[in-house]
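Try it yourself: sequence plus manganese (II) ion, in.
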Amino acid sequence: MNDNHSSFAKSLINEGRLMNHLDELSRIGLNPKTGGINRFSFTKEEEEANSLIKKYMEEAGMTVSIDGIGNVIGSYGQGDEVIMLGSHIDTVPEGGKYDGALGVITAIEIVHSLHEQQITPSVRIEVVSFKDEEGTRFGFGLIGSKAMAGLLTDEQLNNFDEKGNSIKSMLPNHAFPLNKWKRTNIKAYLEMHIEQGRVLENQHLPVGVVTGIAAPIWQEITLNGRSEHAGATPMNVRSDALTAAAEMILKVEELLNKSDSAAVGTVGKLHVTPNGVNVIPGQVTFSIDLRDIDEEQLELLNGHILEELNKIATKREISFSSKLLQRVTPVKTDYYLQKLLESSIKKHHIEPFSLISGAGHDAMNIAQIAPVVMLFVRSKDGISHNPLEYSSREDILTATHVLYDTVLELIN
Ligand code: HGY
Ligand code: MN
Ligand code: MN
Ligand code: MN
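Structure, out:
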């Protein structure tokens, strides 16, 4: 970056501190054998990470609170209206160092540099680390941003983790009633996040402006056949839940490959019961994660897939049930905020580039109650949800300066 503005801002974003904080956070929940990070909601790793970001927020001059759902909120400046920055610090199993964490750490650093320059914003700035964005433990995520958008319902909290704990049982009493967390004073929400895809890399660009976010429908499919002896049961009398699941999973892939929309579908979790080498599987559950930017298309595709899976279950005389785990609305981001980001990007002599997010983000929920925009940072080889997830120091710092400049516009 050679414009004097960025060199001026450069001295104001403490790059060493920013990168150290990212490194320090990434050591919490690190699996030294794989390099993967395991930091799930309502665990000691999350608690440790929350105290670390609370410390960073306080050092940045923020007052910190944790709401009843578990969102960690750093507040800087005065006033009712809020410019909100944030993301999440929880991870998928064996996740990477940057997914979510980058948005929280860079947001704290932006406030820290404002604080060091004694810049008092005309509106209050909040940095939020949203609770349980990934949904790793309870099968549905975005809990913190759902609560802030008034979208979290009691019945959703009855999802259970592998050990039979429900979210409801993990929340403190003062989390209820849930609708008390709905926010109405957010003037703008800006989230920096790694792209988790290959578009920016293919464009040879460090950052991009997100104009739309595809949203997921998550379902859990349960198939019941009959557990029987693997040796004594002839093939023609079996009621094998796993071979039925196999045919269904390939059918999901076939329907998505054939669909002419940008929709994607993934079966990421599969659970076989009783899971014995010499036992014909009696029960199988598997997840379906379906995404599209177009809500109508998404619903139609979802209905079509369920119909086709039901046909396979009937043909195989296997009982079939589906449970909706979560349905999030795809969103378009705010045009004015997109243009603000673009003008900051131009100031850094980078060509502004717009793209859609295939991954879901807290911004989808906050978009229901405020104008939002996201700034994507290039992902090496597009890899994410994987210990190899990587964004370069240079790209991270460029993105931080761009977001810093945009925040300056919003708080003057
Ligand atoms: O699933 C997602 O898109 C995000 O990583 N939670
Ligand atoms: Mn700048
Ligand atoms: Mn993620
Ligand atoms: Mn994320």
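One thing you can check immediately is this: The first strand starts at residue 63 and ends at 66.
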